[in-house]
Amino acid sequence: MVPDSALKRCRECQRLLPFGDFYERGTGHMGVCKECARSRSKAYYASHREQSRLYYMAHREQVMARSNAYYAQNRERILSRAKGDKAFVERARANHKRWRDAHSEKMRAKNKAHRVRQRQQVRQTTYELVDPVEVFEKAKWRCRLCGCKIPRDLRGGIEPNAPTIDHIVPLSLGGPHTRANLQCLCRRCNMAKSDMYQGQLRFA
Asked: Angle, nearest 10°, between helix axes 49-58 and 34-47?
């Protein structure tokens, strides 16, 4: 195994960089550095935006499965980076804000449609007034699916381990908005779960 401190020349930018600055592929490393690989990926997506969207829509389950598998294999590294790398967190927040600002009309329309749909779903099911903090504290601020810690101060944030409330049986599938049907999930698991039924109903 090549140590990360060993040097390798990027065939694109021609810089001599440590092996740790190159993505691993198979039994070796890519010929271009991570920075160049990311730039190439962004350029490709920018010129193939519609094709990428159509591919995702047609292969959503496979894409999510690959994403979940990657997260499962690299969960500690991802969480430690999100928690300890302030620059990474600030970049993520800045990117998220920049996207929201550039798509403000789309976001407003999407959020309005989501609220209308959720209100309709709630009206059609059993509703119970629940304090989200009560659900978080009952779970001892841990994700019910992956078990990671979800810090109180990340509530409302975009970090992968930010705490969120989830319906075990989704409202879209007729699940009630009650304590027994609510669980505490990290943001990553909540997004991956989407409108699937995952978790264990609690009747106590």
From this structure: 90
**Per-residue pLDDT tens digits for 60-74:** 888 888 888 888 888
Tell me if the pTM is above 0.70.
no
Q: Which residues contact 96 (CB under 8 A, 6 or more apart)?
A: 158
CA distance 16 to 156: 41
Give the span between the Cα atoms of 166 and 34, in whole angstroms: 35
Q: Where are the alpha helices (DSSP H) in the chain?
A: 34-47, 49-58, 60-84, 86-102, 104-123, 132-138, 187-193
Query: Which pLDDT tens digit goes with each residue over 74-125?
Result: 877 777 766 666 777 777 778 888 888 888 888 777 777 777 666 666 666 7
Q: Which amino acid is at 175?
A: G
Q: Which two tokens stand for residue 94?
A: 């800045």
Distance CA 36, CA 29 (A): 14
Does 159 score more than 70 pLDDT?
Answer: yes
Sign of the dihedral through C-alpha 114, 148, 150, 68: negative
Judge contact between 160 and 79, C-beta under 8 A.
yes
